[in-house]
Amino acid sequence: MPQRSPTPLPRHTLLALLAAACTPAFAQTPVATAAATATATTANSLDAVVVTGTRRLGTTSLDAPAPVDVLSAETLQSTGAADLSRALISLSPSFSAPSTPNGGFASSIPAGAALRGLSADEVLVLINGKRRHVGANFTRQTLAGGRGAAAVDLSLIPVSAIERVEILRDGAAAQYGSDAIAGVINIVLKSREDGGGASYRWGGLTHEGRGGEQHTINGWKGLPLGSDGFLTLAFDAGQRAKANNTRPDPSLPEDHPFRNWAFGSPQVKDQVNLVANAELQLTADTTLYAFGTWAQRQTLGENFYESNTASSVLAQSVYFQQRYPKGRIPVNVYDLSDAAFNAGVRHGNARTGQWDLSANLGRNTVKSTDRNGINPSYGPDSPSTFYTGSRENTQANAALDYSRDLDVAALASPLTIAAGVTARWERYVLAAGDPIAYTRGPFYNPSQVPGVGVPGLYSGITDQDARSISRKVAGAYVSAEAKLTEQLNVGLALRSEHYSDFGSTTNGKASLRYEFTPGIALRSTVSNGYRAPSIVQLGYSAYSVQTATINGQPVDVQQRTLLPGSPVASLIGGTALRPEKSKNASLGLVWRLGTQASATLDVYQIDISDRIALSENLTTTTLPALAPILAPFGINSAAFFTNVLDTRTRGAELTSKVRLALAGSQLDLNLGYAWNQTRITHARDVATSTGTVIPAIQIIGRNTRGLIEEITPKSKLVLGATWQAGGWTVNGGARRYGSWTNRATSALDDKTYSPQWVLDAELAYAFGGALRGLTVAAGAINLLDSYPDENPTIVASTGKAATGSGAITKYSFNAPEGGLGTQVYARVSYSF
After folding, report:
1. How many domains are there within the chain?
2. How far apart are CA 29 and CA 50, in angstroms?
């Protein structure tokens, strides 16, 4: 792949940053350098000490120069959610992710995070301040924040292991490196030397026949390690039945066994997540630390029903009809394994400063199998189950960080300086599936219908796709922060990185915080950043094969995800990928009334050039000019990653917290509101390797542009209330999603969905006396059984009834809360 250097920071921008000052930048922030940092919230305050985005010890979320949300373990658990991703949907107005992706391939989609309406891979996830590896797979489905994004799977971190989650809502590439355009999510693990707890959760949908029953057990235990260390262990394990809420298939008779075919959330089996977090005090100034995670699960997702009376050649094969006399529903099975280990040593004191030497290794592997299949070219002996390959993503990081507070007479506070060097190695491996899944067998005969065709698999890895690619990244950063006066806090951060495949880049971030009074402050940041294409996007290619009749003859045609810049992709406008480049600016107001009330308001703008997106599925049917180009390769539909778009995102975020002391009880209230809008500011036409110009509107068409501009609700309001009295706790939460639009290929088929309210509630009681430590809770997610607008059953552009999945899917895949209705749950827990 040809090297390309990202645009360096302009000289005038550097001068502006130096003159203005900025927030400190820290590539790998130590999490537990002082006892105070280990606690998310103080006993009598709504403010919280944070470690994300700053190295200044004791900095709280309201003192930080950029917005940071802090969510405690108790807050996460009170949502009733079964995993971290679902909990963040309930709590964060800036967080968005489809909660119930549908279909077979949905079972492989990581439960990722998207902030500020951007893509899930534009958010950096840390655990204990260390970079987390991303998943090995991505989806081509039209999902908000998810199409083409290789994201971190948040569902692999059990809530029982978490002390708190810090969400930095600000561009932070200059602080943490690539992927932090939209912000940073830092998961801080429990660090306890004693105590523990265990719980069991049951959940289910209230409507009979929709499935979705869940069983989860989790627990944690703190153990002493040496004279002044700890080992905290945590786990969760469980399973979830498939869930579905679709219409009956109108094309099938009422007594047909597949009339109510399920195209819903996948079944999850044998999910186990383990976490260990440890520290050992070697000397008064030296601490050895380590933490690791391990996870596995199997998911099974059902695809579209395929009739044996369909016009496809595959369906007309006698072998298909013999094996599936009523048709079939293909099933995708994904086996996931994930492991990561982190270790390091911290040393230092107030006199010499603090240094932190760390290393980690993480790997995510996804293996896929298709069931209810057939390869007619192998005749009646064709298997029904095909192994379709594996995807493996490995990442290793090493870092040396140093920080120190210097007393400077001219400053109102010590000058906090920091510097460090980092190194990262990444590798992506695709391994081919069983050849019988993609080759032609002895019964293949193009002139005879019964013998043609290979299985219509949704996705698979062939021997042409199998590969291993790797790259190296080296970086260095420096930062400084101080109070110039008692009111004005300023700083500067600069970071340079060199990619073995993309050259070098230098980025900076500046911020200031001015405190007008002890309760009112103004904060602002300005930065530039970047996101290099993930190694998954650089190395992934896959196929599916279907049999079509062309000019009266049955022909195998391929649908392919092509490598960016590959010879085939270059023939239809694909070029080597470039890094995304961003410019972020924000301005915010902080208001604090003592320790019992606060509010913040932040506005921002994010400009992204060369934004990475997965192209449309370019077909020879909709673009006849592609037919002679792709015919030699047997391809009639292809997609590839491209940089043809620039975008601008503008938004505003409001938060407020109040704590009220009532007679014998306490009431906590919170409000969060986020509004944002993304627009494509420029689209570039592309030239093929033969010199033909293809308009950008064909590479990135209406549907994919809609995923960027309109698929995420324009606004999200989050309300919460927690009342505590004695052993009783009542939690209430409400969310309002603004309107959003799903664009189709034809504007006549566009649909705008109305705003939607969702209400949650939980009642919990903590026993005392002999049963002290025992808590029981019951609650409901979507208590009032709210639903998004239904999908139309008539296709407006044709005036005809929808067919296939369009006829049976009642609700959009992108509905922010899904379409399954009320989920009730019960939880019993014991702490000691």
Report:
1. 1
2. 11
DSSP 10: P
Does residue 6 carry a pLDDT above 60? no
Residue with tokens 């290789």: 150
Q: What is the CATH number of the domain that holds 741?
A: 2.40.170.20
Residue 526 lies in a domain: yes
Q: Which residues of 562-709 form beta strands (DSSP E)?
A: 580-593, 597-614, 618-619, 635-639, 641-662, 665-683, 686-687, 693-694
The residue written with tokens 């190194």 in the block is: 423
Q: Give CA 300 to chain center in angstroms.
A: 20
In-domain check, residue 260: no
Does residue 536 sit in helix, strand or coil? helix
In the three-class reduction of DSSP (H, G, I as helix; E, B as strand; rest coil), residue 84 is classed as helix
Which CA distances in Å does 11 have to 14, 16, 25, 582, 718? 5, 9, 20, 17, 42
- Planar angle of CA 90, 96, 100, nearest 5 degrees: 80
CB 39 within 8 A of CB 487: no
Answer whether 68's CB lies under 8 Å from 167's CB. Answer: yes
Contacts of 663 (CB under 8 A, 6+ apart): none
Cα distance between residue 665 and residue 659, in whole Å? 11
Strands 553-561 and 635-639: parallel
The rounded distance, in Å, linking the Cα atoms of 537 and 393 is 11
First vs last Cα of the chain: how many Å apart? Answer: 56
Specify if 257 maps to a domain: no
Compute how many other C-beta atoms are within 10 angstroms of the C-beta atom of residue 799: 8
Q: How confident is the model at residue 555 (pLDDT cuts 50, 70, 90)?
A: low
- Please state, in angstroms and rounded to a whole number, the distance separating the CA atoms of residues 77 and 79: 5
Nearest partner of 793 among 784, 805, 785, 802, judged by Cα: 802
Under the banding of pLDDT at 50, 70 and 90, the label for residue 312 is: low
| DSSP structure string for 414-483 | -EEEEEEEEEEEEEEEEE---GGGTS--TT--TT-GGG------S-B--TTT-EEEEEEEEEEEEEEEEE
Handedness of CA 633, 639, 640, 644 (dihedral sign): positive
The pLDDT assigned to 455 comes to 56
Q: What is the pTM of this model?
A: 0.91
Contacts for 701 with CB less than 8 Å, ≥ 6 apart: 616, 745
User: Residue 667's CB: how many other CB atoms inside 10 A?
Assistant: 15
Given pLDDT bands bounded at 50, 70 and 90, which one contains residue 10?
very low
Average pLDDT (670-695) is 90
Contacts of 246 (CB under 8 A, 6+ apart): 260, 261, 262, 263, 264, 808, 809, 810
Range of 827's domain?
Answer: 11-240+271-831
144 in Cβ contact with 813 (< 8 Å): no
As a whole-number percent, the residues of the chain with pLDDT over 90 amount to: 58
Burial of 38 (0-12, 13-18, 19+ CB in 10 A): middle
**Rounded to whole angstroms, how far apart are CA atoms 449 and 138?**
35
**Is there a contact between 357 and 402 (Cβ–Cβ < 8 Å)?**
no
Hey, what are 401's tokens?
């960080």
**Within a domain: 284:** yes
